[in-house]
Amino acid sequence: MGERLAVPLALLLLALMVRLAIAIQGIHGTDILFHVNGSKSLLLTGSPYCLAQYNYPPLYSAIQLSSILVFGWNPLGYKFMPILFDSLLSLAL
Questions:
Q1: Are 48 and 61 spatial neighbours (Cβ–Cβ below 8 Å)?
Q2: What is the enclosing helix (H) or strand (E) of 34?
Q3: Whole-number Å distance between alpha carbons of 62 and 32
Q4: Model confidence, pTM
Q5: What is the DSSP letter of 26?
Q6: Is the four-CA dihedral 46, 52, 53, 56 of positive or negative sign?
């Protein structure tokens, strides 16, 4: 059983490290700014829709806000949870 999980877990860790290395280099694309504004609005008002033009599900904003509160208001904080969930999805597939 352990041998069967060794390769997928190694690939998961490799993918996670590569994605995090790219993420901390800065903001790539523009929709991340909408998510950050939605998270800031959620923190200040309790709703991601009050202070920002945010057209995404509120759960995403709450998940992203949790990583922002842990890692800070920087690219790593903005992108950690999406990268983690993407890597776990790769493992599940």
A1: yes
A2: helix 31-45
A3: 14
A4: 0.71
A5: -
A6: negative
User: What's the Cα-to-Cα distance from 63 to each of 3, 4, 27, 67, 70, rounded to whole Å?
Assistant: 32, 31, 18, 7, 11
- pLDDT value at residue 70: 95
Whole-number pLDDT of residue 28: 67
d(CA 23, CA 67) in angstroms, rounded, equals 13
89: tokens are 């999805």
Residue 25 to residues 5, 20, 32, 55, 57: CA-CA distances in angstroms? 31, 9, 14, 26, 27
- Give the pair of three-digit tokens for residue 25: 């280099």
Output the pLDDT for position 8: 79
> What pLDDT, on a 0 to 100 scale, did the predictor assign at position 29?
67
- Show the low-confidence residues of the chain (pLDDT under 50): none
Structure tokens at 85: 């969930």
Return the closest-CA partner of residue 24 out of 87, 77, 88: 77
Q: Do residues 54 and 34 make contact, with C-beta atoms less than 8 angstroms apart? A: yes
